[in-house]
Write a structure and sequence with these properties.
The complex is a heterodimer of chains A (about 120) and B (about 170). With about 120 residues, chain A is mainly alpha-helical. In chain A, about 75% of the residues lie in helices and about 0% in strands. Chain B has two domains: about 1-75, no CATH class; about 120-174, no CATH class. In chain B, helix 1 runs antiparallel to helix 2. Classes of the chains: A mainly alpha (about 120), B mainly alpha (about 170). Chains A and B meet through helix 1, helix 2, helix 3 and helix 4 of A and helix 1, helix 2, helix 3, helix 4 and helix 5 of B.
């Protein structure tokens, strides 16, 4: 059930990319999709009544093994979030250049002005 | 209890995402995207991922700064939203089909709250001993999978280089 909610978030982003004409809205659709995928990976690594994968002095190893959530998706999602920021910055840079050239964010207008 | 809070936050994220895509004013849609990101960071915190929650807050603030820079400098030029019916209908049907197939695939996943990863116990058991880091996420990023982090730094550098080149004030032969 919770995976389905995550999937709906992903499809809202996909809808934004397919059906919107404003370039900034398309970038926002990308950001929503990115957030949905990151959320999905973290949800997969969750454990009921889990604790964060950080060792403390008072904790015994077997208890830590039994209760900690999966550290691997967390490490990889950390990477993917940072890359997402860089990709967003690149997309926004392209959008700003297109606006300066054509004076609009509307992708149908931009097609008309080509050539 | 935690599950209920996570459900409620995700539903609010869905609403904020819809508002962001459908709002008339670009600035208000950017603010709604900020709402999505910050709620996502709270969800990460509830899912016991504090490192990611911190990173998500920072990244969300930077994203908002970048997006507001893109939208506030331009005069608010409303894009006319007259949809042609047929392309829109085809698009919606395709999305619906894709959604049905994808939700079938979701049934194959393990139930929420029981992960199946087999490498995780190894990292958890030997992380402190082998790398000396109490935070296992750090030991995965900076020791077990350090090449991934190197690749990430490369991608980051390339993308930022592209953005800087695109946004230069004076090109040589403009």
């Amino acid at each position: 059930m919770i995976y389905i909610l995550c999937l709906i978030l992903f499809f809202i982003g996909l809808y934004g990319i397919f059906c919107k004409k404003n370039l900034i809205k398309i970038v926002l659709g990308f950001i929503i999709m990115e957030n949905a995928v990151n959320l999905f990976l973290i949800l997969l690594g969750y454990k009921n009544n889990g604790i964060a994968p950080i060792m403390t002095k008072s904790m015994r190893l077997d208890e830590f093994l039994a209760r900690s959530v999966d550290p691997l998706p967390q490490a990889l999602v950390l990477t993917s979030i940072v890359i997402g920021l860089a990709v967003t910055a690149l997309m926004v840079a392209v959008a700003i250049r297109i606006y300066e050239r054509f004076g609009t964010f509307d992708i149908t207008e931009i097609k008309r002005l080509k050539g | 209890m935690v599950h209920v809070i996570i459900y409620i936050l995700i539903i609010f994220m869905l609403l904020a995402a819809l508002v962001a895509l459908e709002a008339k004013n670009l600035l208000s849609s950017v603010v709604s995207i900020g709402a999505v990101g910050f709620m996502l960071s709270v969800v990460f915190l509830l899912l016991r991922a504090p490192d990611i929650a911190i990173i998500q807050v920072i990244i969300e603030i930077l994203t908002l700064v970048i997006l507001i820079r893109a939208t506030i400098a331009v005069d608010v030029h409303l894009v006319k939203n007259i949809r042609q019916f047929f392309p829109f209908a085809i698009c919606m049907v395709l999305l619906l089909l894709l959604f049905m197939f994808a939700s079938k695939a979701m049934d194959l996943l393990p139930e929420f709250g029981n992960y199946l990863s087999e490498v995780a116990p190894h990292y958890l058991a030997n992380g402190l001993k082998e790398t000396g880091s109490a935070n296992i996420v750090t030991s995965v990023i900076l020791d077990y999978r350090a090449y991934d982090t190197l690749g990430e730094a490369t991608v980051l550098f390339t993308a930022i280089l592209g953005a800087v080149v695109l946004l230069r004030r004076k090109a040589k032969n403009d």
